[in-house]
Each structure stands twice: as C-alpha cells, then as structure tokens.
C-alpha cells in the first residue's frame, strides 16, 4: 500500500510541497545579493534556532529587514493553520496529534504566536 502524500503548505491557493516552498522562499530574496552559502549563514547564527536569530541574517538572503519580517509573518500565518489544512486533505487525527508534538511544541508555537500578535 502506497502512503498518501499531502501538501504541507499552501501559498496563494496553490499547494506547495517542501521543495517548492524552498524555491519560493529563495525567490523572495534577491538571488544576486545572496553571497554566502546556507552553511556559512547558519554557522554565523550559532546554535539558537529562533526567528530573531534567523532575521538577523536577512541581508545574507538579499532581503531588507522589513521584507524578512513580512515573509516570517506570512509563513507564520500559513503554519498557524496547518492542523485545519491537514484535516481538510485527509490526514488522520492521530497523525495530526503526533505531528503537533513537533510543529506546535512550545518553543516554536510561542515564536509564531509572537509574530502574529499585534
């Protein structure tokens, strides 16, 4: 039996798999200005995987601070609706509960909520 594949995210009503989402995010920046590899950027950022830390490297991806904030807010809005989307496309409640342990763990959910609150 072949497992179902579900789109994890949507943008503009178009389902995006992780590969497409990665390309979409890369296109949001100015590719001509991206001068460092991802490995170098993450090495500079250190071990803390926070949105604040990621935003501190906006220029490495050819983004202004304002544009980086806009993208983070857009992704946070999409991710905040992940459970409803997964239910809609047929992911089981059991699987959603399992995924929620990771996607909505306090460290991540708190950061998303902070971005989305006025």
How would you describe this protein?
By secondary structure, this protein is mainly alpha-helical. The protein is built from seven helices and two strands, in the order ββααααααα. The protein has one domain (9-116). Strands 1-2 form a two-stranded antiparallel sheet. A hairpin with a 2-residue loop joins β1 (9-11) and β2. It is globular. 3% of the residues are buried.
Notable characteristics:
single chain, 118 residues, mainly alpha
Rg over CA atoms, rounded to whole Å, is: 16 Å
Low-confidence stretches: 1-11
Number of helix segments? 7
Strand content: 5-15%
Largest sheet: 2 strands, antiparallel
Order of helices and strands: EEHHHHHHH
Number of domains: 1
Please summarize what this structure is.
By secondary structure, this protein is mostly helical. It has helices at 18-28, 38-45, 51-55, 65-80, 82-88, 93-103, 106-116; strands spanning 9-11, 14-16.
Note the topology:
Layout: E1 9-11, E2 14-16, H1 18-28, H2 38-45, H3 51-55, H4 65-80, H5 82-88, H6 93-103, H7 106-116
Antiparallel strand pairs: 1-2
Helix pairs in contact: 4-7
């Amino acid at each position: 039996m072949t497992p179902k594949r579900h789109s994890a995210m949507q943008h503009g009503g178009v389902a995006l798999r992780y590969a497409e989402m990665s390309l979409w995010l890369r296109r949001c920046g100015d590719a001509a200005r991206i001068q460092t590899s991802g490995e170098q950027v993450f090495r500079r950022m250190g071990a803390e995987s926070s949105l604040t830390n990621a935003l501190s490297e906006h220029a490495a991806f050819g983004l202004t601070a304002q544009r980086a904030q806009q993208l983070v807010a857009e992704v946070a809005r999409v991710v905040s609706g992940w459970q409803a989307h997964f239910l809609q496309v047929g992911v089981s409640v059991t699987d959603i509960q399992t995924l929620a342990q990771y996607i909505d763990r306090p460290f991540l959910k708190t950061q998303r909520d902070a971005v989305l609150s006025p």
